[in-house]
From TrEMBL:
Keyword terms: ATP-binding, Nucleotide-binding
Protein name (Swiss-Prot/TrEMBL): ABC-2 type transport system ATP-binding protein
InterPro entries membership: AAA+_ATPase, ABC_transporter-like_ATP-bd, P-loop_NTPase
Pfam families the UniProt entry points to: ABC_tran (PF00005)
Domain ABC transporter, residue spans: 10-239
GO molecular function, one term: ATP binding
Organism: Halpernia humi
Length: 250
């Protein structure tokens, strides 16, 4: 199943995920343009990770329709997985393998030809400044370097879309900013970025954002438009107003 608009990377209509009596994701609808940096924001427990798992082919929705990279989330999950990159909020590389061994391992999984893999691996190690650390176990690297390496591996095979789940959690502000520079560079190459975060200041780095509150999308627009709409100085104020409004409706 191919989406009609070739400029759309992700399209969701009333996607819902229910676990027993609990609705984790409640009829959300949105579109993400190709090459866009799309922020999926919300407090912990808002439903961000559950939604991302459905869009990355790791979980089947309870209802609704969606396509990712033109592929259906119900019937074409394997095709979705081949066309995306994924970086989880928990560190996703193998700590007991070296930097180079991780690149070789994941490059093989992604089907990168051996000759190409060697060249791309050397270029990436040099780009990250890890020449001296390439034979060091990944577990011995500082957290910031681990996260940069994990992101680099997630886009190693030049996927259409990369899903980043809380990618900057626990790292210092300088490293966070460097990480976002890498995201911008990937977006400039045409890779669509779908990123979840609970850091409201990171919303300013996105082209558009949606804000999840209790499993629903409470707002969706550019950061500038949302701040104008809520007469807010920053995204923290926007999120506070949305959360307060939701509590008033309970």
């Amino acid at each position: 199943m191919k989406i009609e608009n070739q400029n759309i990377a992700i399209k969701a209509e009333n996607i819902t995920k229910v676990f027993g009596d609990f609705t984790a994701v409640d009829h959300i609808s949105f579109e993400v343009k190709k090459g866009e940096i799309f922020g999926f924001l919300g407090a912990n427990g808002a439903g961000k990770t559950t939604a991302m798992r459905m869009f990355s082919g790791l979980s089947i929705p309870s209802s609704g329709t969606a396509t990712v990279g033109g592929f259906d989330v119900y019937t074409e999950t394997e095709k979705i997985k081949k066309n995306i990159g994924y970086m989880s909020q928990k560190f996703s590389l193998y700590g007991n393998l070296s930097v180079k061994e991780n690149l070789d391992f994941f490059g093989g999984i992604y089907g990168i030809p051996r000759k190409t893999l060697k060249t791309k691996g050397e270029e990436l190690i040099q780009k990250l400044g890890l020449e001296k650390e390439k034979n060091k176990l990944v577990s011995e690297l500082p957290l910031g370097w681990k996260q940069k390496l994990a992101f680099s591996v997630a886009i190693f095979h030049e996927p259409q879309i990369v899903f980043l789940d809380e990618p900057t959690g626990g790292v210092d502000p300088v490293t966070r900013r460097q990480f976002w520079d890498m995201i911008y560079e990937a977006s400039d190459r045409g890779i669509t970025i779908f990123v979840t975060t609970h850091y409201m200041d990171e919303a300013e780095y996105c082209d558009r954002i949606s804000i999840m509150v209790d499993g629903k999308i409470a707002a969706l627009d550019s950061p500038a438009n949302l701040k104008k709409q809520f007469d807010a100085k920053n995204m923290d104020d926007v999120f506070y107003e949305l959360a307060r409004g939701a509590k008033r409706l309970e």
